[in-house]
Design goal:
Shape: globular
Strand order of the largest sheet: 9-10-8-7-6-5-4-3-11
Number of domains: 2
CATH topology of the largest domain: TIM Barrel
Mean pLDDT: 94
Number of helices: 14
Structural class: alpha/beta
CATH class of the largest domain: Alpha Beta
CATH architecture of the largest domain: Alpha-Beta Barrel
Low-confidence stretches: 1-7
Strand content: 15-25%
Largest sheet: 9 strands, mixed
């Protein structure tokens, strides 16, 4: 059925996004829990560009038949640091994905980039490879915060990367920012917001720092060293982003996402509305919706060594490259749509709410609005998206 919304419209039984994970980074940031790899001796010459692309293409060939008939809407290169990948290999992957799903013309082809990689030669090559959108990991424009976050660039380099991308011809640019750092004041965060707005990106992703147990920040927290700020200050920073970016013309359309009109992240919107997506590469996740209303989820092993040594199979449940598969019935798929949809300003179709009882109380509390067709979180409700999901799924 069609997912009718005020923003983007997707056919949940047809539309598809393809995610490609590129794991290599120059170094691991202390907050990062993603499936990344750092080449031995930090020698970027050791990255097996073509070999990894060959492995991704083999997985694509094995799994694409599961998604036969789908309409390709987006391709997303995440990581890791995809801007380190040889653009010739990115071009090979883009061409192969488009050939496997010829019925769709992707609205968006995104490549994540480190500001250090946003130089003319790389940017020109990414555009030539087929990229249409660049997502730049600025994280902050305050130099002391960038040092704290383990980043290898400074604020001026982050700003220059946006100008370089614009000069190269990218018409859609997204910036990542992180808030909720220990010792960071509301004024500190406001300066980063102001500098980001001055650069006029089409999209901003503004994430609260999450302290994961397997990371150096997780170890620091266990040792009693604060790395994240208290909840009240984090909430104030969230509300500041909502107000300041809204005043600058950005729509706050998902908990962590702000866009100028017409520039919502199409690939991520597929996740939030419950459409199919195929993940390729180590650590990548996939969702295949089934005719009975259920679904099959799977995740590849995080180890890139294992990924390069393995052989993909058409059925992920019978493949040694897959770490986990989860079969979902229609009820579980519906629950996922509620959880994810309530993270977005467009909310969820009212028909997904089995018991309408909690709606009046949540609306009276100023957390949601309800009309004939949809249940939408308010700006305050987005702060409590998980709690809203729990209430509506009780």
């Amino acid at each position: 059925m069609a997912e009718k919304r005020t923003g983007l419209c997707y056919r949940l039984d047809v539309d598809l996004g393809v995610y490609i994970h590129f794991p290599w980074c120059r170094a691991r940031c202390p907050y990062c829990d993603f499936a990344i790899a750092v080449p031995r001796g930090h020698d970027l010459g050791r990255i097996p560009h073509a070999r990894y692309a060959d492995a991704v293409l083999a997985e694509l060939a094995a799994r694409a038949p599961l998604f036969a008939g789908r309409r390709l809407r987006s391709i997303y290169f995440g990581g890791g640091t995809p801007s380190l990948w040889d653009p010739a290999d990115i071009a090979r992957v883009i061409a192969a994905v488009r050939a496997r799903f010829p019925d769709g013309v992707p609205d968006e082809i995104t490549v994540e980039a480190n500001p250090l990689d946003c130089v003319p030669a790389v940017l020109d090559a990414l555009l030539a490879a087929g990229a249409t959108r660049l997502s730049i990991g600025a994280q902050s424009f305050e130099n002391r915060e960038l040092v704290f976050l383990g980043r290898d660039h400074d604020g001026d380099t982050a700003a220059a990367s946006v100008a370089a991308a614009r000069g190269a011809g990218f018409a859609s640019i997204s910036l990542d920012l992180i808030y909720g750092l220990s010792g960071r004041t509301l004024e500190d965060f406001g300066r980063s917001l102001d500098r980001a707005v001055a650069l006029a990106p089409e999209h901003l992703s503004v994430y609260q720092l999450t302290v994961e147990s397997r990371t150096p920040f997780g170890a620091a927290a266990r040792a009693g060293r604060a790395v994240a700020t208290d909840d009240d200050l984090a909430a104030a920073q969230f509300e500041l982003a909502h107000a300041r970016l809204g005043a600058a013309g950005y729509q706050h359309y998902e908990v962590s996402s702000y866009a100028r009109p017409g520039h919502r992240a199409r690939h991520n919107s597929l996740y939030w509305t419950g459409a199919d997506y195929l993940g390729l590469g180590n650590g990548a996740h996939s969702l295949l919706r089934l005719p009975d209303g259920g679904g099959l989820r799977w995740a590849a092993h995080r180890s890139v060594v294992r990924y390069l040594a393995g052989a993909p199979a058409a059925d992920p449940r019978a493949c040694g490259l897959v770490a986990e598969t989860t079969a979902q019935d229609a009820r579980a798929v519906r629950a996922d749509r509620v959880w994810l949809g309530l993270r977005t300003a467009d909310g969820i179709p009212r028909e997904l709410v089995g018991d309408p009882g909690p709606l009046a109380a949540l609306a009276a509390a100023g957390l949601i609005t309800v009309d004939e067709d949809r249940v939408r979180p308010t700006a305050r409700g987005l702060l409590f998206a998980d709690e809203l999901g729990a209430r509506l799924l009780e």
